[in-house]
Design brief:
The complex is a heterodimer. In chain A, strands 2, 4, 5, 6, 9, 10 and 11 form a 7-stranded mixed β-sheet that branches. Chain A has a 4-stranded antiparallel β-sheet with strand order 1-3-8-7, with no helix packed on it. Chain A has strands at 5-7, 10-13, 19-24, 31-37, 44-50, 53-56, 65-68, 75-79, 88-95, 103-104, 108-112. Chain A is mostly beta strands. Chain B is mainly beta. Chain B is globular and about 40 Å long. Classes of the chains: A mainly beta, B mainly beta. The interface between A and B is medium-sized, with 25 and 23 residues.
Amino acid sequence: EAGVTQFPSHSVIEKGQTVTLRCDPISGHDNLYWYRRVMGKEIKFLLHFVKESKQDESGMPNNRFLAERTGGTYSTLKVQPAELEDSGVYFCASRGQDRSEQYFGPGTRLTVT
Amino acid sequence: QKEVEQDPGPLSVPEGAIVSLNCTYSNSAFQYFMWYRQYSRKGPELLMYTYSSGNKEDGRFTAQVDKSSKYISLFIRDSQPSDSATYLCAVYSGYSTLTFGKGTMLLVSP
């Protein structure tokens, strides 16, 4: 069974540009999460999808961040326009229905210069 | 007060040592307690999880939860150089989001 995959693995962009991160969850997992780790801090929750619906987006830092999960399969996280403080590692995780465990992808390292 | 406190280390031990990694948490509503292992430039890998108080053992790893003191531990027996990684504790109250500690970096020297 394939794990959670994320693309790209690393992205370097200039302040003001747009970046789109993609996450493919484990097949059949209805729950998809986005997390972020900025340097020196703990991993923090951004938002949670159940299928294509946003269950909880309380962790989204501001309206420059837009997450979508069309069709309830893969998800994208767009940052527009990017700011320096958006630099960090963005993780995606998925969880099966009626399960407790969340499985993480390898992350996308975003560097905004 | 942070919801989950974890000493960032690094913790350096010789091969074969018993390792004790710990976290404290503040919210008594947390019911699920997870340990993730993260190698450099990789994603967190779920090691073990427990529900409520008690112990859980898996090979060389033992997870322990004491809800009365809000203290969670991970013990690694016969530590190996391949155990060198960052260990993250995470808690949550149900089918919701995880709250992480900062992680403890473990270095096991041959």
